[in-house]
Design brief:
By secondary structure, the protein is mainly alpha-helical. 79% of the residues lie in helices and 0% in strands. It is built from 14 helices and no strands. The longest helix has 23 residues. The protein starts with a helix and ends with a helix.
């Protein structure tokens, strides 16, 4: 709540003049109206409470209307990201950030976009900026973990995923897989096995392939089938190329070569 009030106060300077006036008037009149509603005779109190409710609604409308530009730009950035238009996504979100309108969601998406572009330092900068706005929020923590993993900083990545899980991150099975992946790369094999036991086979082909591959490497599952490898290997080959400058990218490249060999062996 405190962060939200601070964010509205910061955004207020960028609103159009009529919206600023509407919010100021609503809040200015709200305080004495509450006083009247509490101290007035009983036959007047219902009218005063009704007036206070109307003023509160007006203030909420002013806040939503004032932030419409941020919402519109963020929605456009989400669509661009899903369409694979990463440069456009960055342009939209950096514009929000420069105007002081970027909230936790916008900064997290921006950090994740930079990671998809292989720009890991910028990714971490934006994700930690998001975390500063909402400490222990699971979404920037997940993004931080994935960027650190991509940069070959496996122990730090595992710590970020553990924090995200402690913060009640949604889709816990996927985060458990991320955690197991980081622990495996850090050669903390017993911990990786334990993390995998709390995860289930994901539906997405690329995640399902990594899940099966890790289980096989850790001696708790069967080797991935050629069908599963074919469905998910392109993602990991692309990731190996994207992060080729890191130890993680080099490790993925070796894994992709092994998977390709297995797939050819079964054909």
């Amino acid at each position: 709540m405190i962060w939200l009030i601070r964010q509205v106060a910061k955004d207020f300077l960028h609103w159009d003049r009529p919206t600023q006036i509407a919010l100021v008037l609503s809040l200015t009149l709200l305080i004495p109206t509450f006083g009247i509603a509490i101290g007035a005779p009983e036959d007047i109190r219902p009218i005063a409470w009704f007036g206070a409710g109307v003023l509160l609604i007006m203030a909420q409308i002013a806040v939503m209307w004032g932030g419409r530009g941020m919402v519109s730009a963020f929605t456009s950035a989400q669509r661009a990201y899903l369409a694979g238009e990463l440069d456009k996504t960055v342009a939209l979100l950096e514009s929000l950030r420069e105007r002081g309108w970027a909230d936790v969601r916008a900064l997290t998406l921006l950090g994740n976009t930079y990671r998809q572009m292989g720009r890991l330092n910028e990714s971490l900068d934006r994700l930690y900026e998001a975390l500063d706005k909402a400490p222990d929020h699971p979404f920037p923590l997940i993004g931080i973990g994935r960027t650190l993993l991509s940069d070959g900083k496996y122990d730090q990545a595992a710590a970020a995923f553990e924090r995200a899980l402690a913060a009640n991150a949604p889709h816990r099975e996927t985060i458990q897989l991320d955690l197991a992946h980081a622990l495996y790369r850090a050669e903390r094999l017993d911990e990786a096995r334990a993390a995998l036991t709390e995860s289930t086979a994901p539906e997405q082909a690329n995640e399902a392939l990594m899940y099966a591959y890790l289980r096989w490497q850790l001696g708790i599952g069967e080797r991935p089938s050629s069908t599963l490898i074919e469905a998910g290997i392109v993602f990991w080959q692309s990731a190996a190329a994207r992060f080729a400058q890191t130890a993680y990218g080099a490790a993925l490249l070796k894994d992709a070569e092994v998977l390709s060999w297995w797939m050819e062996e079964e054909q």
